[in-house]
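Sample entry was shown:
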Amino acid sequence: MELTERAHWFVLAGDHLIWLDEADRVPHCTRQALPLCWQALAFEEFDLWEGAPCYLHDLGEGESLLGDSSEFGELSPLRQLMMAGDEEGFRLGGRAWQLASFRRSHKFCGECGAPMTPKTGEWAQGCHQGHMAYPRISPCIIVAVRRGSQLLLGAHRRHYQADDPMFTVLAGFVEAGENLEQCVAREVFEESGIRVGNIRYVASQPWPFPHSLMMGFTAEYQSGEIRLQEEELVAADFFELDALPRIPPHGTIARRLIELCRETL
């Protein structure tokens, strides 16, 4: 790495925290232009962004500050990049986080218990017995269910705010032995009691909370009345597409599915 090479610098810490510059962006500069406390860090290249390399350093779970934060910006939640509309910064920050999380959780081999070390030439961990581990990716479905001019939305218990609830489309993890369409039908029925059909794939999005690959679908209501899976949902209902409650922000695949349904009214 040359000191005069312009690059994107991803410094992570804690739980989904990232250092941002004064403009709330991932720093893009030469190594010489970094704060002095950064210049001595050991960075690893993990991707490219508009032709410039992306470098990663993970401070670890216990670190919260690196020197005087006023020098180079605040330690911010990774979601802040998404909320600011920086879709590529959020994607690459999410990739950086998943790689760092993989290293944290694979210090020892799951087969023999021996210490694991990074493998040269690829993002993997290996032990002296030759066992290899690669970053975990968890496949998930997320689905917008239409009933005429209405959309099925739920308020999830894990981030529910009683004073200003956010409603979103339903989602869930793929189980062993099922295909994506089966997962869509099962998750919707389990969470809401609704049967769906005409399941259609739309798009996908990596989602680093913690290491998911979201695969987006649309589906049509077939039958049933709403019956909540209370461990997952606080509330759910069919909302008119021209009168929706608070929904997820732009940059999320949930919002993309909702907007797609609006466009096809």
Q: What stands out?
A: Helices lie at 36-39, 79-83, 87-105, 180-192, 253-263. The radius of gyration is 21 Å.
